[in-house]
Amino acid sequence: MAEAALYDTFARAPLRFDRGEGVWLVTEGGERYLDFGAGVAVTSCGHSNPHLVNALKSQADKVWHLSNLYEIPEQERLARRLVDATFADKVFFTNSGAEALETAIKTARRYHFSKGHPEKFHIITFEGAFHGRTIATIAAGGQEKYMEGFGPKAPGFDQVPFGDLDALNAAINDNTGALLIEPIQGEGGVRVVDKEFLRELRRICDDRGLLLILDEVQSGVGRTGRFFAHELTGITPDIMAVAKGIGGGFPFGACLATAEAASGMKPGIHGTTYGGNPLGMACGNAVLDVVLADGFLENVRDVALVFRQGLASLKDRFPDVIEDIRGEGLMLGIKARVPAGDLVVAMRDEKMLSVPAGDNVVRLLPPLTITAEEAREGLARIERAAEKLTEAELKKTA
Q: Is 215 part of the annotated catalytic residue set?
């Protein structure tokens, strides 16, 4: 009856989890699952992380909501910490990644408007992108399956093929104001954008007076072993959208920008009721305590190396199941030869959770607090799943 009362928009797995412990989820019946989905890269510090739990409980005893009519000290503290650790000068807090992208889009459009160029509201995006589920962000993502049935596509978004510089240069015109890209496409299949391509985007924006917007909703906050994925390229954006891992499970996002890029965002231009609320800010500050602690990101890189090497071995041993391994850090994808959904189910049968993606890919996005031993346990479960799928394929051809 409860299921019937919900919108029919999710194809949920028949699992009910009662509690979580680090990289594990426990069902109502007591079964333990190794969680390599992390709520789609959200539970960055693991389930029931004591530091995050204490921060949330402490704030809950004080005040939950104030609105941005008043100063919120924890919001100011988190913004300052993000500014100090990144390229940004300004931060706007939101409730989600989609809202962070909406803020980024509005910031870019308002920048050019304030400079006397209201015509420069077009933003170029790249095929395979996913930027959210609002009317504007599905238009930015450009995927028909997400836009079908929701009326005309929101204007101002022009899309070019992934990695095609010639097509990009041909698409830029007098109406172009910004480029928007994910350093690693998550929903699109854990496709890593070539580092030199990103550097070229930065050069194009500098040469042609455009703003570079990065969507690091999934790839940010330590996911790649760096605080943000673009650090691997040596470039910085003008505007960046952040969410998922920054709350460690509490829902909030942020739009970061340089002072120049944010110069058009004046009082009354943009707002939010819940964004930057004290509960979210307490969780965000607790996440940064963990992720920015000495040695944490280095450990992410070390564990990721162990896991990546193990996946490469599995690829060699099960070529009929695994075609390729993709990604950076602990944002990894298995490009499958069998249907990706079959691999997700086979792993789930081994009490291991993962996330499907486009291009027939299975995403592996464990909490960043995972140990090398837990990574090896994950590899063992993937191995058992691959063995069973290989046996099934052999039976089909026998």
A: yes
Structure tokens at 115: 């400079």
Environment class of residue 9 by beta-carbon count within 10 Å: exposed (0-12), middle (13-18) or buried (19+)?
A: exposed
Query: Looking at 121, 215, 227, 250, which residue is catalytic?
Result: 215
- Please confirm, yes or no, whether 351 is among the known catalytic residues: no
- Whether 84 is catalytic is no
pTM score? 0.96
Q: Which two tokens stand for residue 211?
A: 């703003």
- Residue 222 in tokens: 């330590």
Looking at 36, 121, 130, 157, which residue is catalytic?
130
pLDDT in tens, the chain (398 residues): 466 899 999 989 999 999 999 999 999 999 999 999 999 999 999 999 999 999 999 999 999 999 999 999 999 999 999 999 999 999 999 999 999 999 999 999 999 999 999 999 999 999 999 999 999 999 999 999 999 999 999 999 999 999 999 999 999 999 999 999 999 999 999 999 999 999 999 999 999 999 999 999 999 999 999 999 999 999 999 999 999 999 999 999 999 999 999 999 999 999 999 999 999 999 999 999 999 999 999 999 999 999 999 999 999 999 999 999 999 999 999 999 999 999 999 999 999 999 999 999 999 999 999 999 999 999 999 999 999 999 988 877 76
Number of H helices, E strands in the chain: 12, 17
Give the count of beta carbons closer than 10 Å to the beta carbon of residue 298.
10
Residue tagged active-site, from 90, 120, 244, 335: 244
